[in-house]
Amino acid sequence: SYVPISLIPKLTENARDLGAKLILVHGETIVEPVPPGTNIAALKCEGVDILAHPGLLSLEEAEIAEKTGTYLELTSRDGHSLTNGRIAKLANQTEAKLVVNTDAHGPDDLITSSEAEAIALGSGVDGDILREVLEDNPNSILEGCR
């Protein structure tokens, strides 16, 4: 879950030192009391792979995500998904990378590939980058974990 902003760099470093292959940071979703500034801190932190449910992402944050190569999550999770359209729009404007994810808390939260496609399209992902979002980006993430 979320942590104080000042701890994000150290926790990221500790996680990598302990062998973490993939690091996601809980973004500023609109449905939980995440400290303001979490998105920026995560996006500027070397070693963060995905900013999960970033909420009311700003243009500046999307630009930083593009610059740092940090993926922005489009989520299937109820509540967190309310801002998927904004995230997709800003990612399109800045060419930030997107990935569809579940924020699964249990087996019933997992989704099929057709559900992931519906989430991406419903979020406003253009058809011409659909394969990138649903296949290429997840494969790149997995390659980095090997």
Description:
The protein has a single domain (5-145), classed as Metal-dependent hydrolases (TIM Barrel, Alpha-Beta Barrel). The protein contains six helices and four strands; from the N terminus they run H-E-H-E-H-E-H-E-H-H. The protein has helices at residues 8-17, 38-44, 59-68, 84-94, 113-123, 130-145; strands at residues 24-26, 50-52, 71-75, 98-101. The protein has a four-stranded parallel beta sheet. Helix 2 (38-44) runs parallel beside helix 3 (59-68) and helix 3 packs across helix 4 (84-94). It starts with 7 loop residues before the first helix and ends with a helix. The mean pLDDT is 95.
Tell how many strands the DSSP assignment holds: 4
By CATH, the architecture is named Alpha-Beta Barrel
Are there runs of 5+ residues with pLDDT below 50, and where? none
Shape: globular
CATH fold-type name:
TIM Barrel
User: What's the CATH superfamily, by name?
Assistant: Metal-dependent hydrolases
Query: What's the story with the biggest beta sheet?
Result: 4 strands, parallel
What is the residue-averaged pLDDT? 95
Radius of gyration: 14 Å
- H/I helix tally: 6
By secondary-structure content and strand pairing, the structural class works out as: alpha/beta
Strand content: 5-15%
What series of H and E elements makes up the topology? HEHEHEHEHH
Please report the distance between the alpha carbons of the first and last residues: 25 Å
Give me the side-by-side strand order of the main sheet: 1-2-3-4
Domain count:
1
Classify the helix fraction into a percent range.
40-55%
CATH class: Alpha Beta
GO molecular function: phosphoric ester hydrolase activity; zinc ion binding
InterPro entries: PHP_phosphatase, Pol/histidinol_Pase-like
Protein name: Polymerase/histidinol phosphatase N-terminal domain-containing protein
Organism: candidate division MSBL1 archaeon SCGC-AAA259I07
